[in-house]
Amino acid sequence: MKTDIQRGLVLRNEKCHEHYTTEFLYNLYSSEGKGIFDCRINVLGHLQQGGAPTPFDRNYGTKLGVKAVLWMSEKLQEAYRKGRVFANSADSACVIGLRKKVVAFSPVTELKKVTDFEHRLPQEQWWLNLRLMLKMLANYQISLTEYISGTMEHVTRRTLSIEKGF
Length: 166
Fold this sequence. Notes:
166 residues; 6 strands; fructose-6-phosphate binding; PKF_sf
């Protein structure tokens, strides 16, 4: 911490050890830091539920707000006829957000089909297909032949496939 790099990151699994809890590690690093560095705790599950917004959050929120108002103005102009607004199509109620690196409007009717409301998550998690590769990278005591069938191929695609073994 006394070098040019002024930050560090400690990641831990909630079940990694019964005595080395998040609070214990925080207290340990805070005690040993003694003015050289400070610590803070970020539990991802808690962060995903909100908290104090960062400047990035504020800037991004402003950009999404502008896009949302422009979208609503466009939809109102399309749906306005003879002094009345007819907003009864599926795309008249949407949620703005990122979809594959692009800001997009998703109709609520589509989101309802793919959402697990009880757990507040999508029904299909995009990263679940990466679990097999994560086990290999974590050096689990597994046989690699269970996951890699046939010959290895050079990965030139952006997506991973369980069927191909990677």
